[in-house]
Structures are given as C-alpha cells and as structure tokens.
Amino acid sequence: MTKKFTVASIMSALALVCLFGSAYLPTGRITLLAITSMCILVTVAQCGSYYGWLQYAATSILAILLIPFKFQVLIFIALLGYYPMVKLYIEKIEKLWIEWIVKILFFTALLIIAYFVVKYFLVRHISFGAIFDIVMTHLVLVVVIAEVIFVIYDYLLSFFAKFYNENIKDRIR
Asked: What is the CA radius of gyration of the chain?
C-alpha cells in the first residue's frame, strides 16, 4: 500500500510540474498537458484505478491552489485527468467499434457541456475577444477538429499504455 501511494504521489508531482510547464512555457503546452494524463496512466498501470482516482483528485486540488493560470488546470480537470480511468472502463467492452462509439459519444457530451457552460455562464461575465467569436460562428468545424484531435490523443494514449506495459512496467519494483 505504501509503495502504491508513493508511486501515485510521485506521478502527481510530475503531473503538477507538467501543468506548471504548460502554463508558463511558450511552446509545448499541448504536449505537456498530454503527459499529465500519461502520469495518471502510469499510476493506473502500476497501482490500479483506485490510486489513479486518488492521484487525479490530489493533482486537481493542488493545481487549483498552486497554478495561477487556470485554463490548463481546467482542461486537466475537465478531461485529461480522469480520461485514462474512463478509457480503462470503456475498453473492458472488448469490441473495438463499440468502444470507439462510446469514447466519441463521451467526448461529444463533454463538448456539449463545455459549450453550454461557456455560452450561459462565462460569456456574460468575460469578454473573450475576436477569436472566440470566430470559434462560435464556425462551431461545427471546431467540433470536427476537436473530435479528430481526441481520436489522435486516444490512439497515442493507447500506444503509450502498450509501450509502458510491455517495456517498462515489469522493470519498476
């Protein structure tokens, strides 16, 4: 139990470093955000999903308290932090086409929730500027691009999980 808690704590610290980097570095922000989910994936592979959820909660709370730029923290909390565990549950279906349908429906539901939160809660209080207006006028195109990026992200997360399980997991004691 102590070993598992230690692994989750170390991976949480690494995820926080990546979140800090994504908030402050001028380039590589998306890559660093993706690495935060890989940190949780390592914890799930080494310790199980219970410790993955603990790591997600701890990283989320610490990120809210420590990172001044909240956009990256919001992306982590809203999708990237818990998606490795959700992916694990979805992939227990073991029928590839059903898994992909569920994953895409899951992501689409998140996009719909984000749209309504932005439209009805944030637009009234924050001026987002011209880029936001362009995104809102071409919403269908933005959703299609987001779905493609999500599929690529899921594929890369699967690739990393396979690589980790085959080459690294057994070497860590």
From this structure: 17
* Reported pTM: 0.85
Give the tens place of pLDDT for each residue, 12-46.
Answer: 999 999 999 988 888 888 889 889 999 999 999 99
Tokens of 111: 């996009």
CA–CA gap between residue 6 and residue 171 (Å, rounded): 17
- Amino acid in the structure at residue 102: V
Q: Which residue has the tokens 């009805």?
A: 120
Give dist(CA 36, CA 80) in Å, integer. Answer: 7
- Residue position matching structure tokens 């899921």: 154
Contact of 76 with 59, CB cutoff 8 Å = yes
Domain boundaries, the chain: 2-171
Q: Is 28 left (phi over 0), alpha (psi -120 to 50) or beta?
A: left
**Helix boundaries (H) for the chain:** 2-24, 29-47, 49-66, 70-75, 83-90, 96-117, 130-137, 139-163
Q: Are 18 and 39 in contact (CB under 8 A)?
A: yes
Instruction: Using pLDDT thresholds of 50, 70 and 90, give the confidence band for residue 70.
Output: confident
Structure tokens belonging to residue 88: 């694990």
Q: Once rounded to an integer, what is the mean pLDDT over residues 95-114?
A: 92
